[in-house]
# Entry
Amino acid sequence: MKIPSSIIMASVISAFLNVSCSGDKTEDDIAVNKDSTETTAQQGNLPSNYETFFQVPSPGEMLTFIKSVGKRDKTKVEILNSTDNLKKYTDNKSKALNFGIYSTDLSYCSIFNMGAEAIKYFKVVKQLGDQLGLSSTIKPDVLARIEKNIDNTDSLSIITDDLYFSSFEALDESKQGQTLALVVAGGWIESMYIAVNMVDKFQSTNQVVQRIADQKYTLENLIEFLKKHESDSDDIKQIKSDMEKLMEPFYLLKEEKVSDTDKQIAGKKIIGGGVNLIIDEKLFNEIKNKIVSIRQNYTQNQ
# Structure
């Protein structure tokens, strides 16, 4: 499976933690500073020689990180976009955004071992995918694979990752760059929405809080990606405007240089040091409120 060239680039995301989708892994099993597609290539049969840095990582990367640091609460299904909202999405913009959102929700169900919910979310992803011209990619036999592996977190994660990248490839190869940009934006905002809702109480040392702060770099890349398609689409212009407003509090984050002995993610040292982004409760809440507002507009098709 090829990863679309339009979403591949070398970037500061290389410093991000990348974790296995295995539901049985502990924090001691987490590999740090590992190429982000190396794990995906092993799990999803991607060519191992493909570029290993993403302009915007797949939503599964954020979700596997959240699970790896102990956020395994299965009662959070209520934060996902209700499948009942599917009927609201009648225009291409809302279909593409919510294809990305529902795909993220499907990944959440797979990673957090919610097999029955994964079936529900696959069905809405399939319906929207068909309407976006992805029928050849999202085949009915994928549902059979999900049902067969309903209790196998690893296999479900592989299946949903394959589905995610296959959809991207199909949109890229069919020159549907505008639709792809909307899907990417929807998927990213949903992963951020889930992340902020996993923080029960703000603590600057909370690993999920720090991961959210680090998304400043991903958001910069997402905005650049949207810029490539905004000239021909008012929808893209609007989404880019939303992301630029979200970027405002991220720009207020202060950077702190750290040595290789200080820089750690999930308790693991990052070779070569790096930069920590300093986030306080006020900025965190501002970022959270903007994410919640944007996500509400997208899922309610406002």
